[in-house]
Amino acid sequence: MTKGKKYLLWIGCLFAVSLFSPHVLSASQPDQMDSLISQGNRHYLNKNFSAAAESYSRVIGLGYESAGLYYNLGNAFYKTGDMARAILYYEKALLLQPGDEDTRQNLALANQRIIDKIDVIPSFFLKRWIKALKGLFSPNQWAILCLLLFAASLGCFTLFFLSNNITLKKAGFSAGVVGLIITFAGLILMYSRMHEIKKHDAAIIMAPSVNARSSPDEQSTNVFVLHEGTRVLVTDSVQQWKEIRLANGNKGWIPGEALEEI
């Protein structure tokens, strides 16, 4: 085996190990979770929405999460009239599955029933495109796609090393380079998507109303009032206080117990 082939094989093994070594989620009580989900579904169909929400919440308490579970829990809270928790779990569902239209539609309906109507400052179009591209796949799906692209790139480089035809060698090398570039771009999107899911900088106001203050101090000036269900970004933290930013750019400090992270 030539030095170049050994190098490609070593890189391929390293890539595969790094891609699949991290997170393997397992449920310690799968039977209990299945039972609770079925129980929640029965309660929902019987219009016992509070009991359905309790069953779905117990599943989450066991360490399981999925976009579908969060969506169902959001629906249950919506039916009970708890818009803040409905919005919270619709947002959690969208974090895992951004392109789900049913969740987006239900979130829009829930947002129509809260008090605060915040004007959103449009983001730069390139940022919107990248966010939409990231949201096409889950981190695991991005990982599989990147592995397939990398395998295809290795195949192209193998063609480059083994072929005696100059045209095929050029085509194999060019396709291999393009494949590697797309692979590493996919890896960047995958890790960015993972960071987006884990960073927890967005939150929902859960208190009926809360005064946002100019500084983390009860004696500081009130700058605006927020009501339950409003989405905010957490930008800083000082003891029990959280600095939050609204979609329109306004900032203020509120007690940490007044919100819950998405």
Task: Tag the structure with descriptive keywords.
262 residues; alpha+beta; Serine Threonine Protein Phosphatase 5, Tetratricopeptide repeat; SH3 type barrels; 3 domains; 5-stranded antiparallel beta sheet; two-stranded antiparallel sheet; 7 strands; 58% helix; globular; disordered N terminus
The biggest beta sheet reads:
5 strands, antiparallel
For the record, the count of structural domains works out to: 3
Q: Summarize the helix and strand pattern as letters.
A: HHHHHHHHHEEEEEEE
Low-confidence stretches: 1-27
End-to-end C-alpha gap: 52 Å
- Let me know the average pLDDT: 86
The total count of strands amounts to 7
The CATH architecture of the largest domain can be given as: Alpha Horseshoe
CATH 4th-level superfamily of the largest domain: Tetratricopeptide repeat domain
Spatially, the strands of the biggest sheet line up as 6-5-4-1-7
Q: Per DSSP, what share of the residues sits in E-state strands of 2 or more residues?
A: 5-15%
CATH C-level name of the largest domain: Mainly Alpha
Structural class, judged by helices and strands?
alpha+beta
Count of alpha and pi helical runs: 9
Helicity, as a percent range: 55-70%
